[in-house]
Amino acid sequence: METPFKLADRIRQLPPYIFARIDTIKQEELKKGRKLVPLGIGDPDLPTPQFIIDRLASAARKPQNHQYPSYWGMIEFRKAAARWYERRFGVSLNPENEVLALIGSKEGIAHIPLAFVNPGEAALVPNPGYPVYQTATQFAGGVARQFGLLQKNRFLPDFAELEKLVHQGPKARLLFLNYPNNPTSASASYEFFEEVVRFAKKHEIIVCHDNAYSEIYYDNKKQLSFLQVPGARDIGCEFHSLSKTFNMTGWRVGFVVGNSKIVEALAQVKTNIDSGIFNACQEAGIEALDHSEPFCTELRTIYQKRRDVLIPALQSIGLDCPTPEATFYAWAKLKEGQSSEQFVMNLIRDKGIISTPGTGFGSAGEGYVRFTLCSDIEILKQVAQTLKGSV
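Above: the chain sequence. Below: its structure as tokens.
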């Protein structure tokens, strides 16, 4: 039945939702009574640490935490975020105006174009990339100019391409980056971020760095904060989340740090259209940030063991899948001519394994499939046997 209600152009212009077709296949298999292995969604299967839950429980009993929270976030939470940045990255932040609490980092990423992108202006967004970068730009009335993340460039942007994109039409106001990267699992070097700062200063463009996966790294290869580079704070901000670091995806606790004017502008948007985080969750966030070790070390050990089971299995069936240095994703290149979507559908039907087609992250994801490490190692061993048996 046709609806009499016309959708707004911003909704009708969204790219096709490829996951709907895959979900149909999943539901068909589930109705048959089949047990599926979920390696598609980046949602940690491990529980939130007990010490964080205990702090939430005690904080939830405080009557003062039951009122409207501050838009900026509790100053105690912002101080904890600043302490963590100083301890982890050697970056000194003023919690008063360089730290803003967010209802998960996605909230801030989705709203920052509203603060800086006028209708018709542009943001530079990665392809493949986290889809919110593009949709947030479009919802703000902006134009998402896509730059490719190609395997030949180690899934880093080509600055020559960025130079061309900057001059294509109206002003480019934002540059979205994400390292360690979703979906490719690529990492970035200090020298790369130095080049980013030079580029941003030259073109007076704001860098929005999504650093949600900084704590999921392997072989002691610590990942960087963009803000560690001199001059980065002049032109940029960095988003972080407790979701992946502490298995807290459902808690919706994140923050943005960096240039005070950028942070304040995002806070102004938030004040008008959003709210703050439940104070009890912020107290739990303080506990997490102040006592991140040894938990994070143990978490990395678990994911590294999982990585070392899944990656060889994917390689054994002819997929080009480099061993990631960070994130809990495996970005596998298919054999020439294979369709990402068809491969995923066949894998569900034939093997009962769910993955994500690269095209879900942009056109440059065609020919790739993303797998996650968010399943128990014994399940991944079974997956490995299943895949090896299909060669």
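The radius of gyration is 21 Å.
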